[in-house]
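Work Package 3 committed the consortium to producing structural models of liganded targets before the mid-term review. Because experimental data for this complex are still outstanding, the team generated a predictive model from sequence and the ligand definition alone, so that downstream docking and mutagenesis planning could proceed in parallel. The input record is reproduced below exactly as it was submitted to the modelling pipeline, together with the SMILES string for adenosine-5'-diphosphate.
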Amino acid sequence: MSVANVVEQLLNALALAGLLFLVSAGLSLVFGILRVVNFAHGVFYMLGAYFGVTSVAVTGWFWPSLLLVPPVVGVVGAMLEASTLRFIYRRPPIYQLLLTFGLALILEESVRVVYGPTALGVEPPALLQGAVEIAGTFYPRYRLFLVVLGLAVGAVVWLLLTKTRTGLVIRAVAQNSEMADCLGADVTRVRTLVFGAACALAGLGGVAAAPMTTAYLGMGISVIVDAFVVVVIGGLGSIPGSMAGSLIVGAAQTWGAFYLPETAMVIMYAVMGAILIFRPWGLFGEEE
Amino acid sequence: MTALLETRELGRAFGALQAVTDVTLAVEPGELRAIIGPNGAGKTTLFHLISGLLPPSAGRVVFRGEDVTALGAPARCRRGLSRTFQITSIFPELSVLENVRIAVQLKAGGNFRLLGGRAQLDASERRARESLAFLGLEGRADELASTLPHGDQRLLEIAMAVAQEPELLLLDEPTQGLSPEDTTATVGVIRQIAKARHLTILLVEHDMDVVFDLADRITVLHFGRVIAEGAPSDIRANAEVQQAYLGTVA
Amino acid sequence: MRGRWLGALALVALAVAPWALARHQLSLLTDLLIFGLFALSLDLIMGYTGMVSFGHAAYFGLGAYGSALVLIHFEQPIPVALLAGALLAGVIAVPVGWFSTRAREIYFAMLTLAFAQLLYTVAYKWRDLTGGSDGIAGVPKTTLYWGGPSVAGPHAFYAVVAVSVVLSLIVCRALVASPFGRALQAIRENERRFISLGRDPRVFKLTVFVIAATFAGLAGALFAPFRGFASPEVMFWVLSGQGLMMVITGGIGTLVGPIIGAMVFILIQEILSSYTEHWMIFTGAIFVLMVIFLPGGLVGTARRLATRA
Ligand SMILES: Nc1ncnc2c1ncn2[C@@H]1O[C@H](COP(=O)(O)OP(=O)(O)O)[C@@H](O)[C@H]1O
Ligand SMILES: [Mg+2]
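The resulting structure, written out as C-alpha cells with the ligand in place, is given here.
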C-alpha cells in the first residue's frame, strides 16, 4: 500500500467518522438528558438529506440549505417529542424506544409517499466539485469538506458543552439523571430543546451526506445501526465516546471495505465484540 | 475467636469522590453491629462492597476466613451473606410468597428445571412460608408485592433475606420511612431474628434510639472513614461523633 | 376458569376452521398462526424476562433459510425441515446471545438490532447459498414423514402449522410456570435483587434467548414452505419491529396475547393495504397510540378489566 493510498483511506475514514459523529453525538446527547434511545434518530438524518434535495432544487443553492435544513429538521423533532414522547417518560425505558420506533416507521413511509422510492442525488456546490491533489493522489473535494465539517461541528459541540452555562447544565444532568429533577419546571423545556437540537444535528449530517451518498430510503436505518455500534463502543451519553466510537467505526468500515469488500461489516462487529468483552459499558461510558 | 466478617483497608472511589476509605472492621459471630454516620458517609457503599455488588478500589473482604474480594455478589450470597437494600428492593409484580420462594431457591443452588419442577417448587415454597410466618406476613402470601403497604414491603425484603438462612445479614436502614409503630415492630423483629436464629447482623440505621437499643457494638463512619468504634455507651460519650453529627445533620 | 373455556373454544375453532373457512381465508389464518408463533417467541424474552430484542426477525429468517435449504436440496419431510430451521436459529443465537446478554436494557436492544443487521447482510451477500436479494424461491411443501402423505394441500399444511403453534404454546406455558420460568420473571422484576440473592442472571438470560430464537426459527421454518420462498426481507429490521408491535398490541407477558396481537396486527395491515399502499404510516400511528394509551395491550387490558369487574 502506497503512501497515497494510506492518505486516501485515512481521509475516507475521517469523512465517514464525521458523518457518524453528527448522528451519534445527538443520539448520545438525547440519551444523556432524556434517558431515551431515539430509534427514529436515523430517520431525522434521512429527513435532512431529503429536505436538502428539496431545498437545493427550489433555491438552486447548496450553502443556504446547509444552514436552513437542520433547524427545520430540529423543529420537526421537537414537535414530535412534545406531542408523543413527553407523555411517557415515567414508563420503563423500553416503551420510549418502542414509541420512537413507531415514529420511525411513520416518518420513513411518509418520505416514501412524498419523494417516491427512487434515490435522489444532490449536486455538490461548485466550490466543492472535482478533486484536489494530496500526496500524489486526487481526492474528492467534497469528502475533504466532510472531514472539515465533522471536525468543526465536533469542536463546536465540545465548546458548547464545556464552556457555556447551558452546556454545563446539560452535562451535569447527563451525568446524574436525578439532577434533572433539580431543574424543576425547566425539565420539560430542556428535554424538548435537547431533542430538537439533536435532531437538527442529525439533519445537518443528512444534508451534508446527500451529495456523497444521495438521499435514499433506508439510509436512516443503516445510519442508526452504525450509530448504535458507535455508542456501544464509545459509551452512551458520552460525547468524547461518540467521537472515539465514530473514528473507530469509520476506520473499521473504510479499511474493511478496502481489504474485505464483501465482509466489511464483520470488522466493525469484531471491534465492537472485543470492546464489549472488556468494557461492556463502552470506552467512555459509566459503569453501572 | 475468629471474626465472621473482616474488611481490611477497604476503599472505593467514584471518580474523584472517595466514598469509602481505609475501612477495617471485624465482626464476631453472633454480634449485632450497627454502622452509623451522617448522610453520604459511605454506609451504603460499604454494604455494596461487602455484599459484592460493587468492586472495591482498594482493600480486601474476608468472610468466614475466606478472601472473597474477587467473588461477585451471587457467590458471596451462596456462602451465607444475605442483605436488604436502603431503597426497598423486591420483585413488585410477583406474589409475596413467590418473592420469598425465589430467594430460597436461588440460595439453594442446583439447576432450575425448565419444564415441570413441581418438587423444586414445593420444597422452596415450604421454607418460604415458614419465613413469612416468622415475620407475620403469612396472611398476605398471595397478594402482589407491589400492593403491600410500605412497611410490609420492608418486612418482606427482610423475610427474603432471612429465608435464605444466612450466616451474616446486612440490613440497610430497615426502618427508613416507617411510622413509629412500624419502627417498633421492625426493631422487635430484628431482635427476634438475632436471638432465634443466632444470626450475625450488620445494621445501618439512622434512628439513634433503634441503634442504641439493638446494637452490641457501633462503628461510626464519617466521610468514608471509621472515626469511632465501640460499645453503645462509649459511642454515646464520644465527642468526635457528636461533632460529626452536629456538623452535618441539622 | 374463564380463561380455560376461552382456550377450549379457541382450540375447537382452530379444529373446525378448515371446514368453515374459504380457501383464501384458511391461507390467511395459516399466516396469522405463523406470525403468532413468532410473536409468542418474542414474548418469552420480552414479556417474561424483560429483554427487548430489536433483532428477533433474524431468527425467523434463519429458520426460513434453514428449512428452505433442507427442502430444496435434500427434499426431506417437513418435520426435518422444521427441526433444521429451528436448530439453525438456536445455534446462531448462542454467540449473539452470549455477547448481547453482557449488556442490559437499551444496550441489549441496540446490540440485538446490530447483530440482526449483520445476519441480514450475510444473507444478502452470500449469494451462492441464499440467492442474495432474490432469495430462495420454489420451496416445496414435502411430506409428513419419509414415504408419508404430502402436506402440499392447504388443509394439510394448515394442520401442520396449527399443530406446531398449539404445541409451542403449550410448551411455552409450561416453561414460564417452571422454576426456570419463574426465575426469568424475577430477573425481569428486579435484576439487582436477583443477583444479590445468589445467582448470576446471565445464564438464565442466555438460555431463554436461545429458546426464544429456536421458536422464532420454527415459525420461520413454517413460513418458507408455506409461502414457497425465503428472502432477506424476512430478516429485515421492519419485521423485528412488527414483532414488537404484535407483542405490545396483544399484551406483553401473556403468551396468548402476542398471538392475538399478531392476528389483529396482520388483519389491520391486510385491511389497510387494500385501501392504501402506505399502510405502514397508519400501523405506525396505531402503534404509537397503543404505546401511549394501552401499554398492557389488548389481553392485558382485558384481564385488568375482568379482574376489576
Ligand atoms: N454509584 C455512585 N456513583 C457516584 N457517587 C456515588 C455512587 N454511590 C454513592 N456515591 C457517593 O458516595 C458517597 C457515599 O454514599 P452512600 O454510601 O450512599 O452514603 P450513605 O449510605 O452513608 O448515606 C455519597 O457522596 C454519594 O453521593
Ligand atoms: Mg445509605
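Reviewers should note the following from the model. Strands of chain B lie at 5-14, 17-27, 32-36, 58-63, 66-67, 81-83, 168-172, 200-204, 217-222, 225-230. These observations will guide the Year 2 experiments.
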